[in-house]
Specification:
Elements lengths: L1 H22 L9 E8 L2 E7 L9 E8 L18 E4 L10 E9 L2 E2 L3 E2 L5 H4 L6 E6 L4 E6 L15 E9 L5 E6 L3 E4 L7 E10 L4 E2 L6 E4 L10 E8 L2 E7 L6 E8 L14 E9 L3 E5 L7 E10 L2 E2 L3 E6 H4 L6 E7 L2 E7 L12 E8 L6 E5 L3 E4 L7 E10 L5 E2 L6 E4 L6 H32 L7 H7 L18 E5 L2 H9 L4 H4 L2 E5 L9 H5 L1 H7 L2
Antiparallel strand pairs: 1-2, 2-4, 3-5, 5-6, 5-7, 8-9, 9-12, 10-11, 10-13, 13-14, 13-15, 16-17, 17-20, 18-19, 18-21, 21-22, 21-23, 24-25, 25-28, 26-27, 26-29, 29-30, 29-31, 32-33
Length: 547
């Protein structure tokens, strides 16, 4: 019995690891490592490494998931493959959100754990593929049709206006290259030689991501024979009041010309725009190599103009050129607001914005001077708010301003109207010194006047000798004086006037009234009640007060 139980225990112990392994999905295979994703346009290439590759019947599977997806997507090209690389494209996924990719090894029903790489945003990680290029030839020009990288895909579908293209071309026989940079999907290279072979290549540059593609394959094309009517050359634009003046060069006489215009943004869109050219009515069937038309005819900032010569039913090729309305539109003078605070001026310059000029990227300049002086000072800065400090107080200053557009066409406006303001009193040390001396002088006058007034009052209220009792009291030594004052006590001056009764007695005795009137001075510390009997009793009363 014990032998049977022991055998069962051995079978159980041997079976348990197999159960655990099976329950865990057979994760005894080593997961793939060194996973890398390379993206070019909409194509994803997934690579990894594995030590299990040499083991028979080992395959690999990959999955991806974006933030907007609830479940992992299994690309068919990356399921149960024997190699360590696969390619796929995103289906119904957003290229602007985080994406996760994971890979595992498989052998029958056994699989390794998933190895997942750090999330990434496909649009930021992707490389730009070379653009598509198609050429057309004229007698003295080549039309370069450029297809946006990954055209029709999701990766760059919304970035049409972010791309610009660099075209490198050269005459095949010489090999000397020239460059043309354009934002257009169709670019016309002019001033070439007829019946000559030219070669070119194009690279795409993403201006926002600051990435560029590899160059397209080199293509060559022969220009055609010289056309019967040459194309108009050297197209130029100028302004005349509110009008444009379009000029070109043409040597053949007895021909007529017509002009058309196209909004610039249409050339950045791959969709055809050949039917979007609009006639310039004032330049239709003109006999001179120039025409005049209103500026509001082209109501966009950037536009193309093209001119064609005609002689009956024979026409030349079109000659075209791009123009920027900002170059031909004058900047109006700004307006200014001036305020004062103490010895400073606060100046705010306001650009007058209109349909063809914008108050962006401007540089502001002000000049200021004392109204009584011809010496002018200047300040230039990017901000329209100026603070001019340390000016003379109570002085009138005048200010003028203008704006500059250095970033685009190096244009400047005229100066604004003059504004003048007077500074305040300010904190001038000289002014405060004068004020301080005035205060001291006034204080001295007040002090002298007050001293004279006090002197007069002292004479007016001076009193005769006080009564003997008061005199004897103040003659006591300090230690025995009971009328000592403390600093906290308030003292007042008072006068003791003898009663009218004594005056009556004096009159009866034949003495004048003045002789019998006595005044006593005493501070308010004492009760202030003094008997006038001592005057009547004479020395006896005085003796009684002595110690």
């Amino acid at each position: 019995m014990l032998a049977l139980l022991g055998s069962a225990a051995l079978v159980l112990v041997a079976w348990v690891p197999w159960v655990v392994t099976a329950a865990a999905g057979g994760e005894d295979l080593e997961p793939p490592g060194d996973i890398d994703v390379y993206i070019i346009d909409d194509s994803f290439t997934l690579k990894w490494s594995s030590n299990e590759e040499s083991v028979n019947n080992v395959t690999f599977s990959a999955e991806y998931q974006t933030e907007e997806m609830e479940n992992w997507f299994k690309p068919p090209a990356c399921l149960h493959i024997t190699g360590t690389t696969c390619q796929f494209s995103l289906l119904n996924a957003d290229v602007f959100v985080n994406m996760k990719v994971r890979v595992r090894a498989e052998k029958g029903k056994r699989t390794s754990s998933w190895n997942e790489i750090e999330p990434f945003i496909p649009h930021n990680k992707a490389h730009i593929g070379p653009p598509g290029v198609h050429l057309e030839a004229e007698d003295k020009a080549i039309l370069v049709h450029i297809s946006q990288p990954g055209e029709g895909g999701k990766m760059w579908g919304g970035d049409s206006f972010d791309f610009k293209y660099q075209i490198v071309f050269w005459q095949k026989s010489s090999g000397v290259t020239q460059n043309v940079t354009t934002n257009c999907c169709i670019e016309k290279i002019l001033e070439l030689l007829p019946e000559t072979t030219y070669c070119l290549k194009v690279e795409a540059i993403h201006q926002d991501l600051r990435k560029q593609s590899n160059f397209s394959k080199v293509q060559c094309i022969n220009t055609t024979e010289t056309n019967r009517l040459p194309v108009p050359e050297n197209i130029e634009l100028d302004t005349q009041g509110d009008n444009y003046v379009l000029r070109w060069d043409y040597a053949s006489p007895n021909v007529s010309f017509r002009a058309q215009w196209l909004p610039g943004f249409l050339k950045s869109i791959r969709r055809g725009y050949s039917d979007k050219w609009r006639p310039v009515s004032a330049c239709a069937n003109v006999q001179t190599p120039h025409c005049v038309f209103p500026q509001n005819t082209t109501h966009v900032e950037k536009f193309f103009l093209r001119v064609q010569a005609s002689d009956g039913n024979t026409t030349s090729f079109w000659s075209e050129k791009e123009f920027d309305s900002q170059k031909y539109t004058a900047i109006p003078p700004p307006t200014i607001a001036v305020a004062t605070t103490g010895e400073s001026l606060l100046v705010h310059v306001s650009c007058q914005e209109n349909s063809s000029s914008k108050c962006q990227g401007l540089t502001y300049e002000i000049i200021f001077w004392e109204i009584t002086s011809n010496t002018k000072r200047k300040k230039v800065q990017k901000s329209p708010k100026f603070t001019i400090m340390n000016l003379q107080p109570l002085t009138v200053y005048c200010v003028e301003a203008r704006v500059h557009s250095f970033a685009s066409w190096n244009k400047s406006s005229n100066f604004s109207d003059r504004q003048c303001e007077k500074t305040g009193a300010g904190n001038s040390p000289v002014l405060w010194a004068v004020i301080g001396l005035g205060i001291l002088f006034f204080s001295a006058l007040v002090f002298c006047a007050g001293k004279n007034v006090l002197k007069d009052l002292s004479h007016a209220f001076s009193s005769p000798k006080p009564p003997p009792s008061i005199h004897e009291l103040f003659s006591e030594p300090p230690s025995k004086n009971l009328l000592l004052l403390t600093p906290e006590e308030h003292t007042e001056k008072c006068f003791i006037i003898e009663s009218a009764g004594l005056a009556t007695v004096a009159e009866e005795n034949g003495a004048p009234e003045e002789d019998h009137r006595k005044y006593s001075f005493q501070t308010s510390q004492d009760s202030g009640n003094y008997s006038n009997e001592e005057e009547g009793t004479g020395s006896e009363s005085s003796q009684g007060l002595r110690p």
